[in-house]
Amino acid sequence: MTTVIDRKLAELGLALPEAAAPVAAYVPVVEAGGLLHVSGQLPFKDGALMTGRLGEDRDVAFGTEAAQRCGLMLVAQIKKALDGDLSRVKRVVKLGVFVNSTADFTDQPKVANGASELMQALFGEAGRHARSAVGVAALPLGAAVEVDAIIELA
Fold first, then answer.
1. What is the reported pLDDT for 3?
2. Which end of the chain offers a freer environment for a tag, N or C, measured as fewer CB atoms within 10 Å?
3. CA 13, CA 107: separation in Å to the nearest integer?
4. For residue range 96-111, what is the model confidence (pLDDT) as tens digits?
5. Beta bridge mates, 58
6. pTM for the predicted model, two decimal places
7. pLDDT value at position 153?
């Protein structure tokens, strides 16, 4: 069955990856009080982790794509947690975007737009959200970006 989200992904030339298994002692998604709390997701492209440090060996365009790829993994995790029923997503409440960047790199908000714009493209007005975009000294496995989310359920 093709859903609205599937059609929007196709229009964007994107596809959801397989939901990644945790790499440490945590679960990918916790449902509590009508909210899904989605653990931080890393960016994968063509099966490979997108690594590097913004402001050092990676630029804003790379980071923006990495954030979008994190967003795709978030949606994959949400879909898996909801047994495939993305129509239960009432609102993307908040994204937390962590950018592996140098001390003088200040374009974290531009990088974070990769995930934010994806949520809006897929979920419409319900995809508009609060957000944090912060630079960090390092991320797991050398990832360029990591994004977590809070999702309200219908």
1. 82
2. N
3. 26
4. 999 999 999 999 999 9
5. 54
6. 0.96
7. 97
Question: For residue 7, what are its two tokens?
Answer: 């059609």
Question: Rounded to the nearest 5°, which phi and psi values hold at 58?
Answer: -135, 150
Alpha-carbon distance of 151 to 89, in angstroms, equals 7
Sign of CA pseudo-dihedral 8, 131, 69, 111: positive
Do 111 and 99 contact (CB within 8 A), yes or no? yes
C-alpha torsion angle, residues 82, 20, 37, 15 (rounded to 10): -60
Q: How far apart are CA 68 and CA 130, in angstroms?
A: 16
Pairing verdict, β 44-45 and 48-49: antiparallel
Helix segments in the chain, DSSP class H: 4-12, 60-81, 108-123
Domains, the chain, ranges and CATH? 4-18+42-153 (3.30.1330.40)
Residues with Cβ < 8 Å from 21, sequence gap 6 or more? 28
Over residues 57-116, the pLDDT tens digits come to: 999 999 999 999 999 999 999 999 999 999 999 999 999 999 999 999 999 999 999 999
> Distance between terminal CA atoms of the chain?
20
Is 60 exceeded by the pLDDT of residue 1? Answer: no
- Both tokens of 37, joined, read 């709390």
Q: What is the CA radius of gyration of the chain?
A: 15
